[in-house]
Design the sequence.
């Protein structure tokens, strides 16, 4: 039995050369959040006493992201990059407690579940000195094999060091490992680099611990839960698994997806009950969708809050800062940004509303634009309750359309419009009788002369 103290060590010093990217591997996003963010969320959800991030030299952006996301993160630098055991040694300088549990996880395993890590920690507290996470691999090539005797884990053998007999084992090491803190320093002291890679392996904790009389067991998880990311193909595969999880969770809470495989969610997408989502819809980070809302096909939402019973799309783009009230309507080919569309308001088609408020029950006609930017600064447009803006109107901000006011179609409004007034701002129409017939005759005569060679 050990104390409840917990130090979580996240190994994130890998360069990720196979990603072919200037962005550190662990900062590549899955469901709108860097991989490291998913791991931090799972790990810090365990009420860790302390979290230590192991980064490589010069990985300031990785360290900065971790500090911004979790308050109790300290940074250890792995200078030599000589394997996972070397990374654990770098972290040891930041681990002050000699009681409780130390949990090692990898920064490039965004699918690892908080519940799984919690199971490992609890087993380490109550039963085993060392607990590893293992999985049955469909193709175990490249993975460290878990050699067991009954339920007790004897050792982990890296693929390059394994005999053909051991390579036939399908139970593989998943990466996370929990160790009682009282044994950590002694285990670190036993590590050597006498292996095919010339590196220090965290996996050697098992064999060395067993030799010292420590117990070791395994928590088994599905292979998809511990899928690592080393390439763009791995990144796409992990995204697919995460999306399946998010969709399944949303449907379990009362969301209808008309074609689930074509809807993409973010890690923080929130739905109320009885939401209906059409085909090919993307929810980027920061979206909250109220109960009974309908999001129609081919819409893209980011940083948007949608009220109960509202209707969005099809082909709508809602950018950050958009609020749509109860039973409001945003129709096809409408774009909004930093816009508050209040209860019952309608913007049915082909409009841009940015840096604006549209009051309750107001109606915005097709082709309406809030002209909010002068090349240097943004300006606000306020459209009052029950106002009616005719089609193809341009509202040049800053401008206010009063409650109940009408704006005639085709107007360019540059001044405030009083409540219940009619504003028309367009050029005067005039006619020249017969002009069109004369124009056509003149041009037809010229065309005939050209074709005859005159």
Sequence:
């Amino acid at each position: 039995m050990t104390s409840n103290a917990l130090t979580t060590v996240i190994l994130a010093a890998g360069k990720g050369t196979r990603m072919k990217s200037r962005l550190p591997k662990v900062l590549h996003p899955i469901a709108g959040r860097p991989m490291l963010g998913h791991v931090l969320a799972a790990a810090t959800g365990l009420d860790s006493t302390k979290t230590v991030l192991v980064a490589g030299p010069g990985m300031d952006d990785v360290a900065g992201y971790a500090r911004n996301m979790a308050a109790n993160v300290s940074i250890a630098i792995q200078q030599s990059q000589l394997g996972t055991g070397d990374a654990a040694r770098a972290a040891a300088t930041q681990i002050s407690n000699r009681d409780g549990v130390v949990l090692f996880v990898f920064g490039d395993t965004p699918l690892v579940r908080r519940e799984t890590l919690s199971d490992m920690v609890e087993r380490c507290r109550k039963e085993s000195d060392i607990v590893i996470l293992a999985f049955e691999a469909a193709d175990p090539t490249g993975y460290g094999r878990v050699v067991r005797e009954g339920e007790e884990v004897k050792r982990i053998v890296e693929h390059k060091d394994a005999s053909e007999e051991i390579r036939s084992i399908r139970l593989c090491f998943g990466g996370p490992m929990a160790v009682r803190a009282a044994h950590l320093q002694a285990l670190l002291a036993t590590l050597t680099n006498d292996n095919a890679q010339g590196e220090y392996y965290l996996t050697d904790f098992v064999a060395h611990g067993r030799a010292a009389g420590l117990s070791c067991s395994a928590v088994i998880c599905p292979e998809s839960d511990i899928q690592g990311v080393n390439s763009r193909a791995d990144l796409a595969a992990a995204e697919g698994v995460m999306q399946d999880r998010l969709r399944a969770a949303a449907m379990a809470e009362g969301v209808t997806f008309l074609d689930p495989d074509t809807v993409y969610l973010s890690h923080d997408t929130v739905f109320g009950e009885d939401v209906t989502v059409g085909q090919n819809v993307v929810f980027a980070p920061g979206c909250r969708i109220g109960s009974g809302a309908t999001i129609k096909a081919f819409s893209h939402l980011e940083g948007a809050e949608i009220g109960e019973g509202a209707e969005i799309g099809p082909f709508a783009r809602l950018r950050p800062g958009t609020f749509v009230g109860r039973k409001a309507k945003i129709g096809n080919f409408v774009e909004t940004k930093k816009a508050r569309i209040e209860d019952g308001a309608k913007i049915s088609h082909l409009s841009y509303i940015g840096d604006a408020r549209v009051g309750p029950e107001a109606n915005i006609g097709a082709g309406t634009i809030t002209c909010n930017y002068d090349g240097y600064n943004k300006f606000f447009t306020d459209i009052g309750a029950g106002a009616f803006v005719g089609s193809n109107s341009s509202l040049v901000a800053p401008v206010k359309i009063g409650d109940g006011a009408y704006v005639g179609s085709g107007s360019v409004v540059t001044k405030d419009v009083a409540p219940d007034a009619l504003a028309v701002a367009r050029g005067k129409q005039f006619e020249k009788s017969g002009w069109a017939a004369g124009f056509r005759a003149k041009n037809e005569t010229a065309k005939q002369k050209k074709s005859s060679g005159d």
